[in-house]
Amino acid sequence: MDELYPEPTTFGDCDFTSYSYLILSVVLSIFGSFITIVALGGADDYIFSHLGHMWLVGPLFICSGMMMGIKTVLYLRRKSVIQMLLRQRALLRGLQEMAHQSRSQSGPCIVRNSSTLTLPPSYDLLMGAVGGLGGPSEAPPPSYEEAMFLIDEKLKTVLDCNASHSLSNPEDLRHKENE
User: Fold this and answer.
1) Residue 32: predicted pLDDT
2) Domain containing residue 161
3) What is the pLDDT of residue 130?
């Protein structure tokens, strides 16, 4: 596989335009630094003493050079990421073709990968395993009629309990006598 899809070198990704912009950004930054140092009094020669407001031009050149350099680096990074993705896609295609060829030669097989190995077992498989061990451990749920009958019985029990509790409470008896 490595022979078919070799890894490129870092400098192999650069083209003439990228080199040109990178060199231009370095030249602008160096020239801006030189103008700034000379205009602010770094050199006391007669030629450089009449620069006046050139101190403002130096930082502009420095900023322009820095922005151009950053843009070039980002362009090269984006280009290398795109090439890496294209290489990975080509590798995946090659691996898929090899897998397809091996499947066609060996017949049907179960695909085993990390996502199929971590899936939980199916519900039917679990219910078959529980039922096969001697029957289900719980009784089946009641039917609608049975459920309604049980609810009615519980409701009657609760109401009877509340009624007996309210009659045994002395405050309720006094309240009923006053009415």
Assistant:
1) 92
2) 144-171
3) 56
Is 136 within a domain?
no
Look at the chain and report how many structural domains it folds into. Answer: 2
The pLDDT value recorded for residue 8 is 56
Show the low-confidence residues of the chain (pLDDT under 50): 1, 133-134
Domain edge (last residue) among 107, 122, 153: 107
Mean pLDDT over the full length of the chain: 75
At what angle are helices 144-168 and 170-178 packed, to 10 degrees?
80
Q: How far apart are CA 67 and CA 75, in angstroms?
A: 12
- For residue 70, what pLDDT is reported? 94
Task: Answer for the pair 29, 66: CB distance below 8 angstroms, yes or no.
Answer: yes
Residue identified by tokens 């609810």 is 151
Angle, CA of 79, 81 and 12, to the nearest 5°: 55
Looking at 107, 136, 162, the residue that finishes a domain is 107
Rg (CA), the chain: 42
- Read off the amino acid at residue 142: P
Exposed/middle/buried for residue 76 (C-beta within 10 Å: 0-12, 13-18, 19+): middle
